[in-house]
Amino acid sequence: MSSSRPTQCSSSSSRTRQSSRARILAQTTLDAELNAEYEESGGSFNYSKLVEAQRTTAPEQQGRSQKVIAYLHHIQKAKLIQPFGCLLALDEKSFNVTAFSENAPEMLATVSHAVPSVDEPPKLRIGTNVRSLFTDPGATALQKALGFADVSLLNPILVQCKTSGKPFYAIVHRATGSLVVDFEPVKPTEFPATAAGALQSYKLAAKAISKIQSLPGGSMEALCNTVVREVFDLTGYDRVMAYKFHEDDHGEVFAEITKPGIEPYLGLHYPATDIPQAARFLFMKNKVRMICDCRAKSIKIIEDEALHLDVSLCGSTLRAPHSCHLQYMENMNSIASLVMAVVVNENEEGDEVEADQPAQQQKRKKLWGLIVCHHESPRYVPFPLRYACEFLAQVFAVHVNKEFELDRQLREKSILRMQTLLSDMLLRESSPLSIVSGTPNIMDLVKCDGAALFYGGKIWRLRNAPTESQIRDIASWLSDVHRDSTGLSTDSLHDAGYPGASALGDMICGMAVAKINSKDIMFWFRSHTAAEIRWGGAKHDPSDKDDNRRMHPRLSFKAFLEVVKMKSLPWTDYEMDAIHSLQLILRGALDDAFKPTRAASLDNQIGDLKVDGLAELQAVTSEMVRLMETATVPILAVDGNGLVNGWNQKAAELTGLRVDEAIGRHILTLVEESSVPVVQRMLYLALQGKEEKEVRFEVKTHGSKRDDGPVILVVNACASRDLHDHVVGVCFVAQDMTVHKLVMDKFTRVEGDYKAIIHNPNPLIPPIFGADEFGWCSEWNAAMTKLTGWQRDEVINKMLLGEVFDSSNASCLVKNKDAFVSLCILINSALAGDETEKAPFGFFDRNGKYIECLLSVNRKVNADNVITGVFCFIHVPSHELQHALHVQQASEQTALMKLKTYSYMRHAINNPLSGMLYSRKALKNTGLNEEQVREVNVTDSCHRQLNKILSDLDQDNITHKYCPYQIF
């Protein structure tokens, strides 16, 4: 769908949400229409033609709500499953069967090689108690699931049939008031996973996760190529693709790997209707979807007639695919598929998330895309491996979020740099013509194919812009139709209702507009999307005729090209924000050019800033010094030569070296010989502006402390900067880890008697928790109870990942899903033998307070050196240290704010001075007498003096009223 949008009354985040809702509603209607056409048309279904027809249908003709409702009901509550497993729906109170698949009696209740008796009643029917079908361990495990808020934490549950002895994976979820259980046979060659199989599944993906985490940031292409390669190796499918959704919901094969001889789809784009909105909703709920054989006959579900609601199969791993999708698969020779959803944070810059905000109020999620696997023959992937793929997709999503954030920062820097250059050009020349006649120009601000400026009744065109008469016609249309808006953006002038769109052709489809005032306008233009599309696959043979009735990737690509024939790439929110910022700068520059200078007002502002800034900086500095001196953690500082110029009381207490003895000594003389290279590197990098975190080194002890051995510190380096942003020293904020190391050493020596250490109430013992090899919480010491507010008996024997720690519905909530995935990686890496030291970690305690800390995860082994679980040690910085860091950040932000204010005022003063300079140059060429020339020269000298003052942004000089005067 395409629409124009005014740019004056809404923030970028609210614009995104509004347009997204409208697009999804419209797209769902189109999906329903196509589905109805497919169901009614039989063999005459022409997919390509219908997609194009739906695009051109007027919105008021699409209000067929009954078809939409029927379509959504059919997608979510179709009573069919795939035949590779069977399904039971259970009443949670009685544990009796309320619905079952037709193949369930044969799979779960038939004796192997037994001949069924005609008179014998069936062992599985409506009302059968499920305990009678399975041996005690499996039946007990199924019943235990009832006590879990999130039953999926136990998946898969290993059960064994009483009659046949066959093992099955039971995959449990809740739906429409029932406990729905999918049963998948365990293959004879497969090693069955036990209860809490999630941890076992994670081990399968350990290598792939390690590969993804080792990638350097900055390349989405490299990230996607790596994940498809790892999934390809892990699952063995013939084709694996990273399928990315664009802002208008159409899809693109962004990365791909295939076995030899298979036609690639890399670079293909698909219309949004190829993956309906209802299917995307299901992917958000059930993030892994497997189709074993698209040619296999589906199995019906038999329900208890007394049920008030049909059993929903939305969360079922066995849910049968829609017939339309099955036909699509078969046409492209994909008989089996496995699809994983990639769910990321919505990029809404207007919605700032506080660090201590509860998890339930965190960022909204959206479906970024899918990892799609295809196979040319039937293929079944066991649930543990699918679970491993799901976790791999979650790790991939975390890194996609990081790439988004990095890309956003780079875009912001680029746009700010370009805005600064354009602003300087405007300030120098006091005319908007400089932003179209010079270099850079307005085309460099956002990606476009052409631009234009309509100013003072004249038009300046850049590259692929419409003709002057066409631009005047567009300006007239904007004045008539969008009189009250300050701007406009559209990816299709045709869809936006511009009557002359067809005359512009394919080269001008999208347009962004910013009005400087009612008569003067800036334009940016884009050509049609198809010009941007590059297909990396095999070229289509012109001699081959397409059968438009068959749904196939090539026809989807063709349909997509038809849909976007009159559309450009959409204008993103950050691009419109950049345009809007330039609009405001241009308005301000033009206003200033016609207004007298306000020297007295500026002088008053400077005076206020001097008083307020001085008092604020003095208060912040005093508070910061006091906190550093009284902090309960060691803090030391050095100058640019490495000489100590700061040494607080805690550092003196730990090392036995008094403050007056430490000041002036080189830092390298105070650390142990083994730590000298580490400190040298840390100091060198910090003086270059690269601040290292969580670096461990040892400091020598002196006097009465000498016999205690070295002090072990974990240190964060913080570069000290002057107001010119030059690094002048380094501050080391440390955490004393000596006691922690002693505890760890003692733990290692007396592993068999660790409880005496863990549950010791001594305040020197850090918070410790642990889990066994199956993921059940097995340790929770007194310090952990004090830190979290949760008693030991409230967490022991609960799932550590999911019940104790999770992003929702857990005792200790972590900040978001990304943080939970990171914790899963730490725990599972330790279970695989890779221990972690002091990783950043955070969670909310029982009272909702956010705890920031460091987490060390160590494996627990038995006498045979077999890993039996993990121990986790938490290191919490003191309140004084946290406060000191907050004060330091506030001080830096205050200084930066003052610097920005002075910079703005400099630009504001420079503008009229530039005008005066121009006037004086003009005067010199008018035949002045000697006295007049002398007066002009004096004025020039005053101008140079003012420039010298304005170029000095030393905040201290301004605060103390010092100006570098030049004698003339």
Structure description:
With 968 residues, this protein is of the alpha+beta class. The protein contains 28 helices and 31 strands. The strands form six sheets. A seven-stranded antiparallel β-sheet has the order 2-12-4-3-7-6-5. A six-stranded antiparallel β-sheet has the order 1-17-18-19-15-16, sandwiched between helices. It has a six-stranded antiparallel β-sheet with strand order 10-9-8-14-13-11, with helices on both faces. A hairpin with a 5-residue loop joins strand 23 and strand 24. Helix 8 runs antiparallel to helix 11 (383-429), helix 11 packs parallel to helix 16 (573-593) and helix 26 (879-924) runs antiparallel to helix 27. The chain starts with a strand and ends in a 9-residue tail after the last helix.
The appropriate CATH architecture of the domain at 741-877 is: 2-Layer Sandwich
How many helical elements?
Answer: 28
Which CATH top level class of the domain at 741-877 fits? Alpha Beta
Strand order of the largest sheet: 2-12-4-3-7-6-5
What fraction of the residues are assigned to beta strands by DSSP? 15-25%
- Helix % is 40-55%
CATH topology of the domain at 741-877: Beta-Lactamase
**Beginning-to-end CA distance, first to last residue:** 68 Å
Q: How does the overall form come out from the CA principal axes?
A: flat
Number of strands: 31
Query: Would you tell me the structural class of the helices and strands?
Result: alpha+beta
GO biological process, one term: regulation of DNA-templated transcription
Family: Belongs to the phytochrome family.
InterPro entries: GAF, HisK_dim/P_dom, PAS, PAS_2, PAS_fold, Phyto_chromo_attachment, Phyto_chromo_BS, Phytochrome_cen-reg
Keywords: Chromophore, Photoreceptor protein, Receptor, Repeat, Sensory transduction, Transcription, Transcription regulation
